[in-house]
Write a structure and sequence with these properties.
Blueprint lengths: L22 E5 L4 H12 L4 E3 L6 H8 L4 E4 L14 H26 L19 E6 L12 H20 L5 E8 L28 H7 L8 H12 L10 E4 L3 H4 L7
Helix pairs in contact: 1-6, 3-4
């Protein structure tokens, strides 16, 4: 049996985990986590990282000849209570948190199956087999209730459902799909500048919890950083995760394992 780690000069299962030649899309690249993911993929040698929408898949294929990684990182927090949540708020959160991943699952895999010759751009490589990775950046609210408002919890559960249902959908395509559940992430926003209706934010500010509470309720005793979420996305995009699909990787410093009823989000 061939060793998938070294079966071709350019393989999705590169032993060094590099993304040379990969063309990637990161939605939500204007948000702190998405911005960190763009930097992480570029650091791993990706030929191009788009902050784009599904409508530009044809343009991507025409320009670069391939699509390899799609990261959905354009989440929306929404209002903190059901009394402050309007039907319009719910629809916006649903579209940001669940519909985006659904469309990625529906439309990205055929593009990831396209093969291409080496082209004239930096880090260009031949793609001689169909493969790809879809990464959905959600929240621990996809597994627990009470993390923020019901709007956020409902749509986060749906995002994880897209990933779990996607495993069977993608059988035989060579495309993997996985989910990241960040917990409390310090995105550099304080309470004074935060919109408490949550309609302009992906995650709540870490300063909602005191340092004392973080120390007591988080296994690693601090909030995480966008770069720490980005490193997990880079892992799931690369060949290091070649046998991982349908997984939910929790990036919360151990908070949900320690105190599942008081997940600090």
């Amino acid at each position: 049996m061939a060793d998938v780690a070294s079966s071709s000069p350019f393989s999705p299962y590169r032993a060094d985990g590099k993304l040379y030649g990969f063309v990637c899309v990161v939605s939500g690249a204007n948000q702190p986590v998405g911005e960190a993911i763009v930097s992480e993929l570029a650091a791993h040698g990706a030929a191009c990282v788009y902050d784009s929408t599904l409508s530009l898949i044809d343009d991507i294929l025409n320009t670069w000849g391939r699509l390899d990684v799609w990261v959905c990182s354009s989440g929306l927090l929404g209002p903190p209570s059901i009394t402050t949540t309007t039907p319009s708020d719910l629809q916006k959160c649903w579209e940001a948190n669940a519909v985006g991943p659904f469309f990625a699952l529906k439309y990205a895999p055929p593009a990831m199956g396209k093969l291409c010759e080496k082209r004239n751009y930096t880090n260009s490589e031949v793609k001689d087999q169909g493969y790809g990775s879809i990464v959905v950046v959600g929240s621990v609210a996809g597994s627990y209730g009470g993390c923020w408002g019901p709007c956020y919890t409902m749509s986060s559960h749906a995002a994880l459902g897209v990933v779990r249902s996607g495993v069977a959908v993608l059988k035989g395509t060579g495309v993997r799909i996985n989910h990241i559940s960040p917990g409390q992430i310090d995105v550099g926003v304080d309470l004074k500048s935060f919109d408490m209706r949550g309609m302009t934010a992906q995650l709540p500010p870490a300063s909602l919890q005191s340092k004392e509470s973080q120390h007591a309720n988080i296994g690693l005793e601090r909030a995480g950083l966008p770069t720490e979420v980005a490193r997990v996305a880079g892992f799931l995009a690369s060949g290091f995760s070649s046998y991982i699909t349908g997984a939910n990787l929790v990036v919360d410093g151990g908070a949900s394992a320690m105190c599942p009823l008081t997940v600090p989000v």
